[in-house]
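Progress narrative, work stream C.
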Amino acid sequence: MKGGKSGAKGRNADTKLSVKKKPVKAKKDPNKPKRPPSAFFVFMEEFRTQFKEKHPNNKSVAAVGKAAGEKWKSLSDAEKAPYIEKAEKRKKDYEKVMHAYNKKQAEGAGDDDSDKSRSEVNDEEGSAEDEEEDE
């Protein structure tokens, strides 16, 4: 289409490309208990120390992970049993701690109306009372 009109005149000059904003994620609670490790990660804790003793010059995390994965696959169910037991024990402990955490969260849900901590609120109330006493 030689000599044709450019498409710019037909478009509305006020339109801009819309930029999609990412949804705002809820902030993670730093007091929330961490999830318990699986049996493999319990095994990894022990394996890392053994691997570092045998290979002190190895700095690669990937090499440790790869060696641990191969070792884990080669273990029989009987050899994996102690790690599975430890993982189950940690899971039970986690469930207890999580239950207490959830209970605490449910109790404190109505109290947390502002961003200020209780000490800040108490400090402000205390300073206002001090000013009234001074008059």
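Work stream C, second folded protein:
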Amino acid sequence: SDMVGCSFYCSARHTPKQAEHPTMSDHSDVEEFETADAGASTTVPMQAGSVRKGGFMVIKGRPTKVIEVTTSKTGKHGHAKCHFTATDIFTGKKMEELVPSSHNLEVPIVAREDYTLVDLNDEGFLGLMDDSGNVREDLKLPAGHDDAEALARQIQDAWDEGKELILTVLKSMNQEQVNAMKEAPKAD
């Protein structure tokens, strides 16, 4: 069944769904496709034994970064098990998972995108401009755990000082959050 998942994932990745039904008048099927596609393309299957420290994996439906992997052999004919310790990439919460090393687990697709900070309002909403000049205002200052709140304070302070900032937005499993900031290079 693992292969089915993989080939579905690959085909979902490479064939735009719209092309398959150019003349379809009934839209209900297309919507179903889109939801299935969204779910399929946020993670990829990977054998547990291949996931390394510093890599990503899904634990209890959350994208996490692996901070420790230990492998235990169990008995004479038992299968090796991988014990993962990881932190949620958005909340920083520590999580653990035990998986037989031959089993597949889900690895979240994690993307990063840099934006120029062009606005920061009193409610903590950020005005973020991409390379094409499009501004989005749907993300707030990071929050939810100590690191995020420390970063939020740094961003706020630098903004108040009038610095030009580049913020990195981490995106995974349909969730997004600012996870880094740097000062924009000075134009000569």
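The mean pLDDT is 83. No further action is required on this item.
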